[in-house]
Amino acid sequence: MAFNLDDYEPVAARLSRWLEIPSQAPKRVITHLMQYTDARCVFKAELWHGDVLTSTGWAEETRGEGHVNRTSHFENCETSAIGRALANAGLAGSDYTKRPSREEMLKVQTSTAPDPWPADANQNVVPINKTGLASTKQQNYINTLINQKGLSMADTKAFIISVVGDSYESVGRLTSSQASALIKALTA
After folding, report:
1. How far, in Å, are 1, 65, 120, 169 from residue 130 at the CA level?
2. pLDDT digits over 156-179, tens only?
3. Domains of the chain
4. Helices then strands (H, E): number in the chain?
């Protein structure tokens, strides 16, 4: 399937156009996390004009499926749901045949490309050189401890950065020593 990403409008541009449309009532975008597991999330987005629901959109993403979802499946899912709601409201770009957003078409493009970060059956990144990286057991324990703390995503990231430094990307990319320090801090 040949296509040009430049022919598709990003969700941010669609959202900006929607917000600029004159309206008597205030506009709101509300997102709902409908399902979340370690491997998958589902979001529903709603577009509101005052008290009137004008459009909805749904999205589902799987952790580790494609390059973006290695680190950002949660955020990607929410953005995709908003993009679907905007498309359902008639904001599918200047060419109505280009209903998918640029982000959705990027997923199509990258799903056929070789994966630069292969994953194992549990969607954990499997680097080419495993030497020095956190074990799966360490990663799972860290995730369990983080869930027990009940921190927001932003607070979790800030906490991890305070322990391991600004180089933090994801639990799957921690070194063994960083993981040990993080486990110690989480259990303190």
Report:
1. 35, 21, 13, 16
2. 888 888 988 877 777 777 887 888
3. 5-111 (3.30.160), 136-187 (no CATH)
4. 6, 3
